[in-house]
């Protein structure tokens, strides 16, 4: 796999270069966290990571013998702050009769760590529901599982965001088609809004588009509008007509405009969208219509009006998929993603000034 820096385990690129305005920008650092050697099964996809309030990093991934295997689980691992070693993966969610899927881990402002994950009731993901666990001791122990959404065909993929009024917005999607290699045009994105005071969830309106869309990634803009970028629906044929789907909300995510094609290509692959503390927007996606390579980073400094900067984080034939991004307390941007036919979990740490170099 080719990256902007070395990709050996826990590789730390030492070269420093000067970015705009004389800011020293460190080259991205890459870490191969887990691969086929870890005894949780060869399949490790997708992965999600969060920074806990004590500074530890906590990683989850869906693992087992394959995407449609039954004896699967969501596995969790911790890297204690100030160390370089990840703990052996521990299965933290499992169903003895069904396959589990995408796991999303996230620590809320009140310190509660949420684990959302998919349980597949039939042969395709169109039969899935979403379950949830919580931890009140920093992901050391977990509650029993509860069904969050009982509607058939509901899945989770991206982390929640906190809105300016303190409520949470959890991205979800409905996958139609009952096909292992395609999502139907009836597939759509939606959200659950969590009222932090009442501790209740409310379903929002859908993002619909002509070919369907799934796996929304939302941000809140300075004027209160919400923008979501979504994975396109369809199949995996080598087409050249696939774009990330974009939608807006002006009422806190309760209703959304019809999804339209953005300017960004999409090979039917997951994306993530992040608002940095500087106010810039960061889009992580595959800049291709038919391959999950390169894994690219685009930056907007004007509230989604333009995206003049694109940097390729990973290039080559590594099949870089399902990126999740977050900004840690020290200001660095973290991206976790899988590669090598969904068998390797990778972690990149990026200095924000590096993002602003070499606009194109």
Overview of this structure, please?
By secondary structure, this protein is mainly β. It has one helix at 352-355; strands at 2-3, 16-18, 24-26, 29-34, 43-51, 57-64, 73-79, 90-93, 99-107, 113-120, 128-135, 146-149, 154-156, 161-162, 168-174, 188-195, 200-203, 213-220, 226-232, 243-249, 260-265, 272-275, 281-286, 295-300, 309-315, 321-327, 333-339, 344-350. The strands form seven sheets. It has a five-stranded antiparallel beta sheet with strand order 1-25-24-23-22, with no helix packed on it. Strands 13, 14, 15, 16 and 17 form a five-stranded antiparallel beta sheet that branches. Strands 4-28-27-26 form a four-stranded antiparallel beta sheet. The longest helix is centred in the C-terminal third of the chain and has 4 residues, at 352-355. It is globular, with a radius of gyration of 19 Å. Mean pLDDT is 92; it is low at 5-22.
Q: What's the SSE blueprint?
A:
Blueprint: E1 2-3, E2 16-18, E3 24-26, E4 29-34, E5 43-51, E6 57-64, E7 73-79, E8 90-93, E9 99-107, E10 113-120, E11 128-135, E12 146-149, E13 154-156, E14 161-162, E15 168-174, E16 188-195, E17 200-203, E18 213-220, E19 226-232, E20 243-249, E21 260-265, E22 272-275, E23 281-286, E24 295-300, E25 309-315, E26 321-327, E27 333-339, E28 344-350, H1 352-355
Antiparallel strand pairs: 1-25, 2-3, 4-28, 5-6, 6-7, 7-8, 9-10, 10-11, 11-12, 13-15, 14-15, 15-16, 16-17, 18-19, 19-20, 20-21, 22-23, 23-24, 24-25, 26-27, 27-28
């Amino acid at each position: 796999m080719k990256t902007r820096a070395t990709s050996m385990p826990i590789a730390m690129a030492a070269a420093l270069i000067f970015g705009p305005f004389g800011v020293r920008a460190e080259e991205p650092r890459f870490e191969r966290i887990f691969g086929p050697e870890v005894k949780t099964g060869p399949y490790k996809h997708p992965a999600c990571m969060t920074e806990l309030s004590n500074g530890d990093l906590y990683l989850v991934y869906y693992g087992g013998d394959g995407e449609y295997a039954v004896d699967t689980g969501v596995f969790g691992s911790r890297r204690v702050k100030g160390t370089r070693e990840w703990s052996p993966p521990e299965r933290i969610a499992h169903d003895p009769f069904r396959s589990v899927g995408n796991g999303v881990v996230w620590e809320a402002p009140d310190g509660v760590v949420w684990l959302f994950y998919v349980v597949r009731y039939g042969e395709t993901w169109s039969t899935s529901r979403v379950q949830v666990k919580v931890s009140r001791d920093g992901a050391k122990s977990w509650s029993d599982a509860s069904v969050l959404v009982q509607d058939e065909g509901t899945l989770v993929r991206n982390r929640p965001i906190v809105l300016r009024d303190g409520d949470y917005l959890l991205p979800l999607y409905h996958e139609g088609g009952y096909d292992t290699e395609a999502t139907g045009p009836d597939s759509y994105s939606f959200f659950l809004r969590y009222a932090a005071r009442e501790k209740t969830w409310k379903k929002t309106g859908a993002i619909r588009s002509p070919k369907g869309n799934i796996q929304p990634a939302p941000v809140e803009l300075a004027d209160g509008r919400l923008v979501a970028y979504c994975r396109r629906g369809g199949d995996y044929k080598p087409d050249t007509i696939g774009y990330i789907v974009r939608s807006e909300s002006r009422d806190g995510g309760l209703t959304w405009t019809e999804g339209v094609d953005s300017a960004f290509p999409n090979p039917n692959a997951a994306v993530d969208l992040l608002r940095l503390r500087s106010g810039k927007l960061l889009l992580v996606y595959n800049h291709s219509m038919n391959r999950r390579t390169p894994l690219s980073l685009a930056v907007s400094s004007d509230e989604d009006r333009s995206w003049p900067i694109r940097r390729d984080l990973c290039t080559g034939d590594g099949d870089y998929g399902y990126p999740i991004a977050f900004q840690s307390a020290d200001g660095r941007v973290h991206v976790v993603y899988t590669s090598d036919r969904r068998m390797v979990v990778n972690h990149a740490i990026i200095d924000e000034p590096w993002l602003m170099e070499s606009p194109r």
